[in-house]
Amino acid sequence: MANYYQPEIETASREKILEIQNEKIVKQVKHVYENVEYYRNLMDEKGVKPEDIKSVDDIKKLPFLTKADLRDAYPYGLLGTDIKNCVRIQSTSGTTGKRVVAFYTQNDIDIWEECCARAIVAVGGTNEDVCQVCYGYGLFTGGPGLNGGSHKVGCLTLPMSSGNTDRQIQFMMDLGSTIICCTPSYAAYIGETLAEKGYKPEDNKLKAGIFGAEPWTEEMRRGIEKSLGIKAYDIYGLTETSGPGVSFECEEQTGMHINEDHFYAEIIDPETGEVLPEGSKGELVFTSLDKEGFPLLRYRTRDICVLSREKCSCGRTHVKMSKPMGRSDDMLIIRGVNVFPSQIETVLLNEGYTPNYQIIVDRVNNSDTLDVNVELTPEQFSDKVGDIEARERALEGAMRTMLGIGPKVHLLPPKSVVRSEGKAVRVIDNRKLHD
Amino acid sequence: MAIKQLSVFVENKPAALNKIVKILADTGVNLRAMSIADTKDFGILRVIVDDADKAKEALSEETIVSVTEVVAVEMSDEAGSLSKILDVLGTENINLEYMYAFTAHKDFGAYVVLRVDDIALAEKCLKNAFLKTLSEIDI
Questions:
Q1: In the predicted model, is pLDDT for residue A242 greater than 90?
Q2: Inter-chain touch A383–B46, beta carbons under 8 Å
Q3: What value of ipTM does the predicted structure carry?
Q4: Any idea what DSSP says for residue A179?
Q5: CATH 3.40.50.2000 is right for the domain spanning A333-429
Q6: Residues B20 and B64 in one domain
């Protein structure tokens, strides 16, 4: 038996969805053109006028926005309304030093929370549930998004934030949490900790988990489902478009329904920018149809995936996206944090090191590890072990400040970073997240 | 007089040290004394050789090598002789970074290599205490 938060829209006919999208996009493009100078300039450069956009079919005429645009326009350049109409900001982990700051009006927050509410109801959530949110709260969208969604559904919400696993488990057991929301790696960790403490999967009252913000495999899903005794569901989103809840899994667990009444999705060829036919694998691009504070049009997510309009047994009619199968750029998601190799390079150059480095990412006991091998120069060498170790600690500190997560730095002799065909292999990801 | 020690950066992995000493062998450089400080990732090989300049040139092709000035002090073969040397340094508040011992080929006497923060002062007070330090020529 399928559950919907907003049945009318979630199961609307294809025609109805298109009608809503067409109506919204015409208004949205006009509004952005008139209010966002940065995007108006991009449209003018491309020779596109708001009147050229008559339906979602015309979205392909619009210029793209990339993370680089967000950086250039930081902080107010892509603001879509007067700042006095905004009530909140959320932010991503920094990319090459500058963060993405997204603005929300109250209406934006209501819609975002409704999207999250749809995800919670889709996994069986009702006002009788106890929803434990252990995504980080604060600038990160994970906590606030699911927290708001949980309120909308009427669940008893436990705003745990991340970390302090003993306390998570104590509240889970004492208050009988039935739904848990966190990153998949943290869910796996909680499962292990429960087992270590002697709990069996049936000892907790959990029935479902909503896990996102980082890539995970089907194998990991099965592991979490077994260790917690639940069904594990995927959720997708990004700060640039709102946060979690852009799309979510239903009971079928075969892809995430995109909330198409708010977000228009395209799949493009990351090389040419051309829109690819349905079913093709390519880069996911989102257009916010009704965002007011931060109305991004054609934002390139850099996530590679496939869209499917195949009929879903849950009754939802919104298009489904596959789990992201990779990235069209070199971004790594480590413990839920976006990390670009260029950020690490920036730190090294700032600290006087060579750009000869290697990033090694792995997953040990379901938690991501980040190791950075760096070549030492003769000037930096010392005959004292303590001096070199102090350098390692200093670099780790500088990287933690830049990335938001702490790596382990290893200083090595020159030429010890592996090179292939003369070019250094910058990143070794041993996690095997994409099957 | 201070003597030259080569400090060599070596990755902590199988065969890394052998690569270094092979280079010394191929260059015809003779090792007088050595010690290794190791961590999980790397080691620092400290050597006293008969021709520091030649050894440094050859090793620089492979890894980072620096020349560090150290003091080599003669020790008599009896209880308390190391303590006597360290007493001298301690009294003058000279910090000892690290040390290692070796025997020289000449007379099979024992020597201790000291890496200190103030070489000039160390030499002066060791001399005042009637302790013999080695110079390059003795190596």
A1: yes
A2: yes
A3: 0.81
A4: E
A5: no
A6: yes
